[in-house]
Amino acid sequence: MFGAVALPSLRDDLALLPGPPAHDGAPTWTLHDPLSNRFFRLSWPAFEVLSRWHLGSPTDVAKSVCAETPLDLDDQDVASVVEFLARGGLLKAETPKDVDRLLAIHDAAKTSWLTWALHHYLFFRIPLVRPDAWLTRTLPFVAWMGSRPFRLATLAALLLGLLMVGRQWDRFAATFVDHFSLSGLAAFGIALGFAKMAHELGHAFTAKSYGCRVPTMGVAFLVLWPMLYTDVNDAWKLTDRRQRLMVGAAGILAEMTIAAWAVLAWGLLPEGPAKGMTFTLAVTTLISSLAINLSPFMRFDGYFLAMDALDQPNLHPRSFALARWHLREVLFGLNEPVPEHLPSTTRAWMIVFAWAVWIYRLALFLGIAVLVYHFFIKVVGIVLFVVEIGWFVIKPFWAEMAEWRKRLPAIRASRRSRWPLGGLLFVLLILLVPWSGRVSAPAILKAESHMALYAPSSSILAEIRVAEGQKVEVGTVLARLDNPDLALRLQQVERRIGVLKYELSATGFEDSFRNRTQSITQELAGAVAERAAIQAETDRLTLVAPMAATITDISPNLQPGQWINGREPILGLRVGTVLEAYVAESDLPRIAKNNSARFIPEGGGTAMDATIAAIDRVAVKALTEPSLAAPYGGTIPARFADKTLVPDGALYRVRLATDTPTAFAAPMRGQIHMDGQRQSLMGSALRSAAAVLIREWGF
């Protein structure tokens, strides 16, 4: 500490301002540091100490506070205030010791060039304008937007617009779907830029109307994503909580005002470009305000509104500190002092809030990391992906593990720590021990070859002599067809043949026949040939099995006595079965030929044993079985390219043999579980990461 000899001098440029009442009704004050434009909330004891700073020593200050107020302070309390002022850089550097202290603070804040680059890649600001004087001049021209009549008119416009949207909801929803195009996304981008400009001007004009200074406006970059910002830190000077809430909510209210009038305009305007523009503006501002700005989990407007509404400054860091303390107490029972004393209800919801923020940020940053990976050049995308995961996900875990290492002796001495440590050991065993050697992959059971039988010509179905799934041999009669036209033609030809034979036999006693002997002979030969052709065509009406096969695909729409044409299949013949699986590249080294496997049909069919017969050594370029692809209900992510289904990842086809007799009418989709080399979950994750690095870097 600084001792009880003399108090250090305060900086002359500091400003002490009245603050809003605390949640328990106690008065507070705000200390403004104009050099860094930071604001510090002071409690009643801290204010009383600063009010008597001129007394010179901690002992005199403590005695004066105890004598003149109901507070009971000692030298240690005054020293704590001195420590707070020193950490904030609010004291003068008058002695070599003070200079050394400031240098130590400066050195502690220094980082390596790599850390500086990472921090500025993740977030940095570029101030563009100093709008304070312009805001002062233009405020009278826009003040009417904050008047009560305009707010009531906006509310009425919103209600009327929502009523119109409800009556035309189908058209509104169809317009929303139609905007998912290149031009629609461009319109959304322009509308979003306009809405964000109105958002920031809403903050600026509202703060200015309450007498606050707005020093800068510019662009902030969060993971290289541009966002407008307005510096309204001067709002901390406001003692009225409602005014601070209005400054924080002004941006959202500005966007909601635009959305209200745009919705009304959409309902009133005729079809055309103007109606489309109002739709884009309404949807963009509604999504931006409700889905992004109102979230208290990130440092957007919703967070600052929550702090002011709940009167809980620095809500995130204070909640995080409480949640970390609570986690250590639950796991290890260290009995450490609570970071700050709060009512039990307040402490409980702040801990729950901290966990909600952590879960939300984990999901958000993982999503950002994936987007960065996909939308940047592959090598750069991998680097930025690693940065995102390392900074936002791994770094907080590593920092907490470092705190646990500091408390390791106390953790070992605590009986409660046995269960968490045992659970941690169990998780490590699950991750590191190769428990299972099973390799799973999507698979399909199908015919080795398939033949469909058709009617040779238009005919009547007399009967089908086989059943679905029946095994037949070569020459087995499958179905019989009738064709009355062929029967009639055959009768006519038989009659002609009979007449011609009679005429040919009568040439010995009939001159007319004798003169036509050659012609009759030729006609008879033609009729006999025609009869043979008709008989052959009639024989084709009896369908026989050309090979040993299994009957499948008997059409349920065909009934005896029904006319059928030559384009409609009657039944199918399946020869043999083949089982094909598509294995991911990371699992390929774990399986080998002749390994056992088990096929589980989709929908709960009978499982069957199989054996790996062959493994392709080249990844498939296109899926030959569309039913396995995600667009058709399968599990393999795939996309269309040049009218073919291309899998998103590297997949290798594996052929399996099975001796289990199975009757199926159509290809059967399912999962194959193959015996393979045992591998831990951690090993699998590392292998997958290495495969991605090798593939993307082109090693």
Automatic annotation (TrEMBL):
Residues 188-268 form the Peptidase M50 domain. The keyword Coiled coil applies. It is a multi-pass membrane protein. Its cofactor is Zn(2+). PANTHER family: EFFLUX SYSTEM COMPONENT YKNX-RELATED. The chain crosses the membrane at residues 148-165, 172-194, 214-232, 244-264, 276-294, 348-373, 379-398, 419-437. Signal peptide: none annotated. This is Peptidase M50 domain-containing protein. Belongs to the peptidase M50B family. InterPro entries: Peptidase_M50 (IPR008915), UPF0194_transport (IPR050465). It comes from the Bacteria. It holds the Pfam family Peptidase_M50. GO terms for cellular component: cell envelope; membrane.
